[in-house]
Amino acid sequence: MGTNIVKTESVIDLEGPERRALHFDKKHMEYSKFEVEDFIMDPFFQKWVLESDEMADTFWKAWLLDHPEKKAQVEEAIGVIKTLKFKNNKLSKEDFQDLWKDIIADRRTGQYRLSKPRIPVKLVWSGVAAAFLVLCLAAGYLFFGNPIFSHDQVAWQTGFGEKKEIILPDSSVVILNANSKLQYPGAWDDDQERTVQLNGEAFFSIIHKKNNQKFVVHSGDLNIEVLGTAFNVNNRRGSNKVILNKGSVRLDLSAMDWQEWTHQSNESYLLMEPGEMVVVDRDEKEISKKIVNPEKYTSWTEGVLIFDKTPLEEVIRMIEDNYGYAVYTGNLNVRELDFTGELYSTELDLILEYLSETFDLKVKKENKKIMLIKDD
Amino acid sequence: MTGSGPHAGVNVSDQQIWQEFKKGEDTAYAFIYKNHAQDLYSYGTSIANDSAFVKDCIHDLFLDLWQRRKKLADVSSIRLYLFKALRNKILKEKAKRKPLRAEVEDNYNFQFEYSSESLMIHNQFSEERRKKLRLALESLTQRQREAIFLKFYKKLSYKEVAAVVGITQKATYKLLARSIQMLRNKMISIILLFLTIFS
C-alpha cells in the first residue's frame, strides 16, 4: 500500500486556482466597485479573513494600499465575517469516546437510538436447516415431476447468492436462503393444517393462530410442527438442522426409518426448546440435540456470517450450497482447520478474501470452481 | 512496499478510505469517525440545539453507514457526504417529533463565539449589544443560519454548501446574500465596534 495513493482535489471549482488567478487581473478592477455585502460574499475575501491564506493576504494588503477609500467597507466586511463565527460546540473527550463505544457495540445488533431504518419488526427466528446440495437437486426433480406450479400452489426458488423474504398467506414471514425452494398453497382454510415444503434453508417466523392452527414444515422426510411462534429450518445434503430461537417446535420423525438410527429417545417425536439445535444426520444415521447460540445460525438473515470455531469443511459446504461453486481444496486438511470471526457481508468474494487471509491461501475462482491452495 | 498500514500515510484519499470502509474494514470506519465526529457534532448543533439529540443522530448515522456500507455510492468528499446525511437525519427526526420538540425549535438558542483576535472587542461588548447581535442572528431562518454556519464557520465553498443543503449554487449564493443583508441591517451599530480590528 501507499505507493499509488492518489490525492484527490476537493469539489471546489469556483475557488480553484483559476479563479484565484482571475483575482489578479480582471477581478482587480471589479473589487473597486464592491460594497460591504459584496466583500462578505466573495470567496477570495472570505479566504483571507477566515483562513489567513498567504496569497490572499498579500493580495488584499496590496489592494488596500491602492484603494484607501475602501478601507471602511473592507473593515466592516471583516467585522461581519468574524462575528458570524458560531459557537463551536465540541464533544468532550469522554463524549467522543463514549459515543464511539456505543456505535461499535450497537452496530451489529442494530440498536438504533432514534428510529430504526426499514428493517422489519424484530422477529423471532427459529430455523431448521436441512441441506444437501445433491439431494436438493434430486428433490427439485421430484418437484418438477409433480404439479407444483398448479394454480393453487405458490413456489419460490432462490438462485445462488440470493436471499428472499416471503410473506405467507397467514402473514407469517419466511426468509429463504440461497439455492433454496419454498412451496405452499395460495391460501389455507382455518381448519386446515398450514403446511409448507422446504428444500434448502430458511428462517420461519410463524404467526400464532388463536385456534392453534398447526403449522408444519415438510423438510425432506422430516416434519417440523410449530407449536410456538418462530423457527428456522435448514435441509441440505441429506441432513436436517433445526435451530430454535424462540417458541417451541416438535419434530415428527415418523416418516423416517428412525428406529435404525442412533437416537437418544425412542419416540417418533422430538420436542425442542429455544436455543437448541437438532441435527438429523443422514450419513451417520444419527439424531442429536445440542445447545447452541442460535444467532450464529440465523445471522445470515441480516447479512452477517458468524463463525465460531467453525471447521473449514463446514464453511466450504456453505459456499458450495449457497453460491453454487464447487470448491477444491487439494491436500488442505479442511477438517482440522477452523475459523472464528464475524463477517458483515454475505458476498462470496469477501468470504474468500477472509479465508485466504486467515489460512494463508491462494484463491482461484473460475467457471463455477474455486480452488484453495496453500500459499507456501 | 513500506509495510505500513493503509492509513499510516497522510495522503490517503477520501476515496481510498471509503473503499476500505465499504469492504468492512474496521480501521477505515474508525478513521472516519475520528476525523469527522467533531465536525458533525458542531454542524449538528447548529441545526438542532440539543446536544443529546445530535449525539443520537450521529450514533444512528454511523450505524446506518455500517449496515448499508456495501450499497453506498462512491463519494468524492466524505465530509460533505456525512454533513448531508446528518442533515437529512436530523431534519427527518425533528419532523417526526415536532410536537415534542416544538419548544426547543422556537427558542432556538443561537450561539456564536468571537474569534480570539476579536476577544478584546468582545470584552468591550455591553450585555445589551450582545443581546442585539443575538437577536439579529436569531431572526434568521434555520436554513439561513445553517448556510452561514457552513460557509463562514466550516469554510465550505458555495458549491459545497449547495450540495449539503440540497439547493443550487445560485440559490445558495442568494440565500447567503439575503442573510448577510438582513444581519447587517440589524447589526449595523454593533459592527461599527469592529472597526478597530484592522489597524
From TrEMBL, chain A:
InterPro entries: FecR, FecR_C, Ferrdict_sens_TM
Segments passing through the bilayer: 123-144
Keyword annotations from UniProtKB, A to Z: Membrane, Transmembrane, Transmembrane helix
Gene3D superfamilies (alphabetical): 2.60.120.1440, 3.55.50.30
Domain Protein FecR C-terminal stretches: 305-371
Keyword flag Aminoacyl-tRNA synthetase: no
Residues annotated as domain FecR protein: 156-250
Domain of life: Bacteria
Record-linked PANTHER family: PERIPLASMIC SIGNAL SENSOR AND SIGMA FACTOR ACTIVATOR FECR-RELATED, PROTEIN FECR
Name used for this protein in its record: FecR domain-containing protein
Organism: Agaribacillus aureus
